[in-house]
Design a protein that fits this description.
The chain folds into 3 domains: 3-157 and 283-351, FAD/NAD(P)-binding domain (3-Layer(bba) Sandwich); 170-280, FAD/NAD(P)-binding domain (3-Layer(bba) Sandwich), CATH 3.50.50; 355-468, 2-Layer Sandwich (Enolase-like, domain 1). The chain is 32% helix and 25% strand. It contains 13 helices and 22 strands. Strands 1, 2, 3, 4, 5, 6 and 17 form a 7-stranded mixed sheet that branches. It starts with a strand and ends in a 7-residue tail after the last helix. Flavin-adenine dinucleotide (FAD) binds next to α1, β2, α2, α3 and β4.
Length: 475
């Protein structure tokens, strides 16, 4: 007998599990199907983000930063550490515990919100009676019918055509989060978000890290001034970043990987690494969904085709998160999940794509929202810019973390904030003020006139806003 629900969500990552919870809050009988397995074969909801993405990477970034501080920064504070050692097994074990806490947290939230959970792969069978029939395979096979379907099946790492992931020597994000011993030489192909975050983790733990990037510019999506600063700081830390390369053959040996490439001058190069991380972007995951059975339309790049409101070409079928257009970010997936549940309930769910923050959790962190200076120039928008260095911020000095700056871009005539770009300590937290300001269409003067606690890093944002009008007080 088929089990009937109002809403079925396929995929339990941040897009899917949040959509399911919101739908249940709104009074719909809701189920979420997710196939992710933990090492014992049990359910591990939370998707890429919880299992092999945001959460474990941030756990390792934190641990490796503590290690680096104990080895270097502590001495400056008068703390002498003798016999510093690395217990990598314990560090990785802690990361696994953090992941499990998050998996269990989601299962608890499903119970609390009365979301029925099915562990297995969900696939379309047919459209039926104004709704859809979905089969769940794996675990206990089930058949589900529901009027509304939300597809939240996420993304997978993109492989190089000539170098399949074996997760032993040639690693995707999954293998990069679980290397059993610190590689002496680590290669990274792709100087994007994963390459820089995972490269930072293993460099801090002692690896010699080389990053090979195809594009001639470093972090092209980031404001040029901030990207230049980042490139300088990462080089100083010892990340060897080579831009403008063309990757050739990648050959796995018994214990190493050889990468042949042409450098930015076209000269042939060869590098041998103990491990190679390939982080060249991600592709939408529709494997096993059997969308063909109901005529689900994909776009030319393989994403589920949706309109601005996340509607697919099929009535009452929606799609959110990494499997649809837009930035592949957990918070974007969540916002779309909430908005879709609210639209199903006849409400006006809304996602503002202009105020989605980005964060790269390197040290220093990089965070931004809105337009970059180069985008504004290309669009011919007249703007004013104000910057303030953390070097001149009292709290940053007390922390011993003074690299970087805050940069505010405002419309030359109306003074409306068009973009805020931060490289520096706790940029991931500081950016929220800018998001709130932009969501309320604040001017730089609004931030400049707001009382910020002293001493705090957020004073740098206020000072950058003052600098838009050339009236910084502390610089
Ligand atoms: P996913 O999280 O991929 O979840 C999809 C789920 O659906 C999975 O559990 C999958 O098993 C399941 N599934 C797929 N098909 C089926 C099916 N047919 N039946 C049942 N289940 C199915 N983003 C940030 O915002 N901040 C970060 O710090 C950050 N760090 C990251 C670090 C790394 C290393 C990586 C790889 C990604 C990171 N991301 C980060 C990106 C973030 O993980 C994704 O944007 C986010 O997970 C997308 O959520 P989603 O719900 O769309 O898909
Ligand atoms: P990315 O898109 O951030 O970076 C990929 C990089 O690889 C780009 O610089 C690209 O030019 C380069 N590249 C592509 N093909 C190449 C080739 N053949 N040779 C050399 N370089 C090549 O993708 P990444 O790092 O894989 O991450 C995927 C996505 O996951 C991110 O875009 C982001 O959406 C998400 N993510 C978010 C995080 C965060 O929010 N902090 C952390 C990690 C991932």
């Amino acid at each position: 007998m088929a089990k009937n629900f109002d809403v079925v969500v396929i995929g339990g990552g941040p897009g899917g599990y949040i959509a399911a919870i919101r739908a249940a809050q709104l009074g719909f009988s809701t189920t979420c199907i997710d196939e992710w397995k933990n090492e014992k074969g049990g359910p591990a909801p939370g998707g890429t983000c919880t299992n092999v993405g945001c959460i474990p990477s941030k756990a390792l970034l934190q641990s490796s930063e503590h290690f680096e501080h104990a080895g270097h920064a502590f001495a400056d504070h008068g703390i002498e550490v003798k016999g510093l050692g690395l217990n990598l097994g314990r560090m990785l074990g802690r990361k696994d515990t953090v992941v499990k806490q998050n998996n269990d947290g989601i299962l608890f939230l499903f119970k609390k919100n009365k979301v029925a959970f099915f562990h297995g792969r969900g696939s379309f069978v047919k459209a039926e009676g104004g709704g859809y029939e979905i089969a769940v395979a794996g675990g206990t096979p089930e058949t589900i019918t529901a009027k509304h379907v939300i597809i939240a099946t996420g993304s997978n790492p993109r492989a190089l055509p000539n170098a399949a992931f074996d997760e032993k020597l040639i690693l995707s994000n999954t293998g990069a989060l679980a290397i059993g011993e610190v590689p002496k030489k680590l290669g990274v192909i792709g100087a994007g978000v994963i390459g820089l975050e995972m490269g930072s983790v293993w460099r801090r733990l002692g690896a010699e890290v080389t990053v090979l990037e195809a594009l001639p510019a470093f972090l092209g999506a980031v404001d040029d001034q901030i990207a230049k600063e980042a490139n300088k700081l990462f080089a100083k830390q010892g990340l060897a970043i080579h831009l403008g390369v063309k990757i050739g053959a990648v050959t796995a040996g018994n214990n190493d990987v050889t990468v042949e490439y042409a450098d930015d001058k076209g000269a042939a190069q060869k590098a041998v690494f103990d491990r190679l991380i390939i982080s060249i972007g991600r592709i939408p995951n529709t494997t096993g969904l059997n969308g063909e059975a109901v005529g689900l339309k994909l776009d030319e790049r393989g994403f589920v085709a949706v309109d601005d409101a996340c509607r697919t070409n099929l009535p009452n079928v929606w799609a959110v998160g990494d499997v649809v257009r837009g930035p592949m970010l957990a918070h974007k997936a969540e916002e779309e999940g909430v908005a879709v549940a609210e639209r199903i309930a006849g409400q006006h769910g809304h996602v503002n794509f202009n105020t989605i923050p980005w964060v790269i959790y390197t040290s220093p962190e990089i965070a931004w929202v809105g337009k970059t200076e180069q985008q504004l120039k290309a669009e011919g928008v007249a703007f004013k810019a104000g910057t303030f260095p953390f070097m001149a911020n009292g709290r940053a000095r007390a922390l011993g973390d003074t690299s970087g700056m805050v940069k505010v871009l405002a419309d030359a005539r109306s003074d409306e904030i068009l973009g805020v770009h931060i490289i520096g300590p706790m940029a991931s937290e500081l950016i929220s003020e800018a998001v709130v300001a932009m969501e309320f269409r604040a001017s730089s003067e609004d931030i400049a006139r707001i009382c910020h606690a002293h001493p705090s890093l957020s004073e740098a944002t206020k000072e950058a806003a003052l600098a838009v009008d050339k009236r910084s007080l502390n610089f």
